[in-house]
Design goal:
The N and C termini lie far apart (91 Å). With 210 residues, this protein is mainly α. The protein has 10 helices and no strands. It folds into 2 domains: 65 residues, Arc Repressor Mutant, subunit A (Orthogonal Bundle); 120 residues, Tetracycline Repressor, domain 2.
């Protein structure tokens, strides 16, 4: 009895996943799937090779769902990273300079774990080749975290814990720069003990009031 299936069609059907046969994602579920897909594609392909088609396939949706939300890859990636990363305002800071620095840096280090960390590491290596995206990355992702650190230092100055010069750009950037340089070179985030050592041996001597 003929099934109407030609040779090779069964094998093809088993090898190819057709997202259209799955339950259709909507709303928050779809947004989460897209965010996870962008992060995973970044980690596997990097920014330059990431495509709408690849993200749509991994997210289990169609490209039209992406184009309805974003005009280009740049804005899609920026939104996905913003959604995947913790919000700076969500940090619970103890209100003491040393403890605040440790919480801040450990939160940044936690973002370097798993697929998100891998994607960001590859992205950091590519960002200089994509100037428009670099500017959006700086504005959307980096600037809010730098602003939080500057606010932390300003509060410490007001409490008398930090010296007035602690708000100089080189002081604000020192901790995150060491953290990111270590991760970019080795692919391994700093541990809690290493962060405490960085704070105690470098940041506090540089920032603390005399």
């Amino acid at each position: 009895m003929s099934t109407g299936v030609r040779a090779g069609q069964v094998e093809t059907a088993l090898l190819v996943t057709d997202y259209r046969q799955r339950p259709r994602k909507r709303g928050v579920t779809l947004e989460r799937a897209i965010t996870e897909a962008v992060v995973a594609e970044l980690g596997e392909r990097g920014y330059g090779a990431l495509t709408f088609e690849g993200v749509a396939t991994r997210a289990g949706t169609g490209k039209s769902a992406l184009y309805r939300r974003w005009p280009d890859k740049m804005s899609m990636v920026a939104d996905a990273l913003t959604a995947a990363l913790p919000k700076p305002e969500s940090l619970s800071l103890p209100g003491e300079l040393r403890a605040d620095l440790i919480v801040y840096l450990e939160t940044v280090a936690q973002c370097m774990l798993g697929p998100l960390g891998l994607g960001m590491r590859l992205l950091c290596g590519e960002v200089s080749r994509h100037q428009e995206f670099a500017e959006m990355w700086e504005h959307r992702v980096i600037a809010p975290w730098q602003s939080l650190l500057a606010e932390m230092l300003a509060d410490a100055i007001a409490r008398g814990e930090a010296r007035p010069g602690a708000l100089a750009p080189e002081c604000v950037l020192a901790g995150p720069s060491v953290l990111c340089q270590r991760f970019t070179i080795t692919g391994v985030p700093m541990s809690r003990a290493e962060i405490e050592s960085l704070v105690d041996n470098a940041l506090m001597p540089m920032l603390a009031a005399g």
